Every structure is written in C-alpha cells, then in structure tokens.
Amino acid sequence: ADHGHRTFRVDTDRGPMAFLMKDANRNVTWLTDDHAFIRDVLGNRYEITSIAALDDHSSTQLDRVL
Questions:
Q1: Cα(31)–Cα(20) distance, integer angstroms
Q2: CA-CA distance, 51 to 42, in Å (whole number)?
Q3: DSSP tag of 55
C-alpha cells in the first residue's frame, strides 16, 4: 500500500525527478492561488511558479492530488 503517499513525476530545472509527498494539507504551501511549494517526504521543496502555465495533463494530475 502507499500509506497515504502521493507519487509525483516532474520535470525540474535539475532534470526529471520522482518523489513522494504525504498529507497535502501539511506539505503544500500556497504563496498565491497560482504559486505553491510542495515538500516531499525527505523535506525537499519543489516550486510551482504558475499552476496556470502547466500543460493540461499536468494541471489535471495536480488537481487530483491537491
């Protein structure tokens, strides 16, 4: 079982990454309605500077998690 973890596969400025996040309420920090940080289970932070700028597939997948 995934024990409540969400798996992310993302493209970053450092290349493709995969990470786990647990509890979106605690590990997503919203700076604005369109700008957020996601913290993974190891404490690394991933910044989404504009959710509106994501492609349709990514936006849909993110909506399912957040």
A1: 21
A2: 23
A3: -
- The residues, any chain, with a CB within 8 Å of residue 56's CB and separated by 6 or more, are none
Bridge partners, residue 6, by sequence? 21
State which amino acid sits at residue 47.
Answer: E
Q: Strands 45-48 and 36-39: what pairing? A: antiparallel
Structural Rg of the chain based on CA atoms: 11
Structure tokens belonging to residue 8: 């992310």
Helix H or strand E segment including 35: none
**62, 21 contact by CB (below 8 A):** no
pLDDT tens-place string over residues 8-28: 999 999 999 999 999 988 999
Q: Residue 6 CA to chain centroid, in angstroms?
A: 9
pLDDT in the model for residue 1: 44
